[in-house]
From TrEMBL:
PANTHER family on file: PEPTIDYL-PROLYL CIS-TRANS ISOMERASE HP_0175-RELATED, PEPTIDYLPROLYL ISOMERASE
Gene3D superfamilies: 3.10.50.40
Name recorded for this polypeptide: Peptidylprolyl isomerase
Entry keyword Signal: yes
């Protein structure tokens, strides 16, 4: 709880006061270490809407809190808490996680998000032919597959897809499939691109995905039909011979007739549906979009229903006969609603490669990276075919220290790239031209180092990221300091806790309490009857049994030891044993059977240990801060403080 408070306190995100005029002004020093006005103003603004204590919205009061915060950080560093391995590990983990949000090209990312939404809002109907091909296939095999697909494309244009499909599909290396309708994120990105970029009625040229090479034929494009939630009753076909399934059709028609007579759909589904997965749920299926089910006919019927509760007539699919009931129509959500979800999907999807490529191109320009043709030529000359067997080594006269490329202040050498080639060679690897191999590896090597360098120096180039990391870094330190010097120490100091309790025990007490039964009802006559029965010594259970009749709750009781001021007690209650008068509280009438009165008394430590411990920790923290003020000199520049106040009060 303490940790959460500290991190939230310094990680909020509102902005109110401008600090441009205070860019280089020092507000105060802690033992000679400067604290700049711009930092104070920034943190003050971020916390202004979070704090509930009005005093913390006052600049002077907040400055005192901020000084105390900086004193604690000074002490944490003096104790070496910032050198602890656990602290460094947690901070580095957080930095790496946070950096993901800043390691992208925002322009490309936004374009991909908008593209993804448009594709989710529009569906494509297509077929494709795929010839499987290993990613490391030789150039010769790749060319053969490409040329084969070009010929198949010509055949589909001349003969039609179905004819070619029947001839070539083998389900092992060649797949010719009808895909129905699909939308964004339903296919790998390269396939999705080809389908959306191919005009209706046309066939794409061969293109490559991680599965192999494809051609795609596009039949139709339409607006997304959104999402449907339906239930169905299914009677399965008993045979592939339709002539033998007359009984199945008769049975579904009988069920449909029962529905027309007003019988409950869910009950009939549980009783008669042969889809065991949904029958127990009254036939209800999970929500689905176009292309998610294996039957396009079922989808078409489901999406054809218009109003909640509408029923389809019986219809047949390859699985049997169905009746469908519509539960919910859900159109595609607006872009503004889906944007965060789409951004997360884009960054997980293969689209993220485009984001990385754009960022790498941007970093090359930013760090003035130029092509090093001479170096790549040299590495091509020292490579040989042993690389494809995983046995290649650097030559003895290899110029290890020769400069290769410089990223900022990071100088990479021939050794760095040479060792990368040795480390990443695999066995066996299909052969390719050595110049191509070097170029591909160098681009991967350079891209990796550009990304690593940008991440390592992100605090220097991204102010928002730097602020968040600084605040998180300080928050972790402060938590460790408070945990070790205050919170845990207070928990373990049993003698100190006992003494604190004895010195402050007057603050921990029970108010006057009563052991009572409180009868309440909006009907005064009912309460009068309850009072009469209480005077006769009747129990609360007996009274409730007598007065609560015909499923009506006419009287309720609140019983037990109740502190004066308890919501169930009348404010004017006379604190004495016996049956009270009848009181009115708001719209309710009350009578109280006071069985015993307990006077105000001090609570035992065992009863208030948690409360006392919190107060003891606060007391120790106060003394700790007083000690820090004596240990470290704090000097405040009043002129700068006045300048801050004048800005805030404008």
């Amino acid at each position: 709880m303490h940790r959460l408070y500290i991190l939230v306190l310094f990680l909020a995100t509102s902005v109110m006061v401008q600090a441009q005029d205070l860019e280089d002004e020092i507000l105060f020093t802690v033992e000679g270490t400067p604290v700049y006005a711009k930092e104070f103003v920034r943190v003050f603004n971020k916390n202004l809407d979070l704090v509930q204590d009005e005093s913390q919205k006052d600049v002077e009061a907040y400055l005192q809190l901020f000084v105390n915060y900086k004193l604690k950080l000074k002490e944490a560093e003096a104790l070496g808490l910032n050198q602890k391995a656990a602290y460094k590990k947690e901070l580095e983990g957080y930095k790496k996680q946070l950096a993901k949000n800043y390691m992208s090209d925002s322009k490309v990312t936004n374009q991909l998000i908008e593209e993804a939404y448009q594709r989710m809002a529009n569906e494509v109907k297509a077929s494709h032919i795929l010839i499987r091909l290993n990613q490391d296939a030789s150039p010769e095999d790749t060319l053969n597959v490409y040329n084969r697909l070009v010929k198949l494309r010509e055949r589909v244009q001349a003969e039609g897809f179905d004819k070619v499909k029947n001839d070539v599909h083998d389900g092992q290396t060649v797949f010719a499939e009808d895909l129905g309708y699909f939308s964004g994120f339903k296919m790998v990105y390269k396939f999705e691109n080809a389908a959306y970029n191919t005009p209706v009625g046309e066939i794409s040229m061969p293109f490559k995905t991680r599965f192999g090479y494809h051609i795609v034929k596009v039949y139709d494009k339409r607006k997304s039909r959104g999402e449907r939630t339906v239930a169905h009753i299914m009677v399965a076909n008993k045979s592939t011979d339709k002539s033998t399934n007359a009984d199945v059709e008769n049975r579904i028609n009988d069920i449909y007739q029962k529905l027309q007579q007003g019988e409950d759909f869910e009950t009939l589904a549980k009783q008669f549906s042969e889809d065991k997965g949904s029958a127990t749920q009254g036939g209800k299926l999970p929500p689905f979009e176009s292309g998610q089910l294996s039957s396009s006919k079922f989808e078409d019927v489901a999406f054809g229903l218009q109003e909640q509760g509408d029923l389809s007539k019986p219809f047949e699919t390859e699985f049997g006969w169905h009746i469908v009931k519509l539960y919910k129509k859900t159109p595609i959500k607006p872009f503004e609603v889906l944007q965060p979800e789409l951004e997360a999907k884009v960054k997980r999807d293969s689209r993220s490669n485009l984001i990385n490529e754009a960022l790498i191109a941007k970093l090359k320009q930013e760090y003035n990276i130029e092509d090093n043709t001479a170096a790549l030529t040299y590495f091509t000359t020292i490579l040989n075919t042993s690389y494809f067997k995983g046995m290649w080594q650097l030559p003895k006269d290899f110029p290890s220290e020769k400069p290769l490329v410089k990223i900022g202040d990071l100088q990479l050498t021939y050794s760095d790239f040479g060792e990368y080639l040795v480390r990443t060679q695999r066995r066996p690897t299909p052969e390719k031209p050595l110049a191509t191999l070097v170029t591909q590896n160098y681009e991967a090597f350079l891209g990796s180092h550009l990304m690593q360098y940008r991440e390592a120096n992100l605090e220097d180039v991204n102010e928002e990221y730097a602020h968040i990391i600084e605040e998180y870094r300080d928050g972790l330190l402060l938590f460790d300091l408070m945990e070790t010097t205050i919170w845990q120490a207070a928990k373990e100091d049993s003698l100190g806790l006992e003494k604190f309790y004895q010195d402050h025990k007057a603050a921990y007490y029970w108010n006057t309490r009563v052991n009572a039964d409180v009868a309440s009802s909006p009907n005064k006559q009912i309460v009068k009857k309850a009072a009469k029965m209480l005077r006769k010594g009747e129990t609360t259970d007996t009274i409730k049994e007598a007065l609560n009749k015909n499923d009506q709750v006419n009287i309720m009781f609140t019983s037990g030891i109740l502190e004066v001021g308890h919501q169930a007690l009348p404010e004017a209650l006379t604190l004495e044993k016996g049956i009270s008068n009848i009181y009115q509280k708001d719209d309710t009438f009350l009578v109280v059977n006071v069985k015993e009165v307990f006077p105000k008394t001090t609570k035992a430590l065992a009863d208030v240990r948690g409360m006392v411990l919190t107060d003891f920790q606060n007391y120790k923290e106060q003394k700790f801060i007083e000690k820090l003020h004596k240990k470290y000199a704090v000097t405040i520049d009043q002129a700068v403080l006045n300048q801050i106040k004048s800005q805030i009060n404008k």
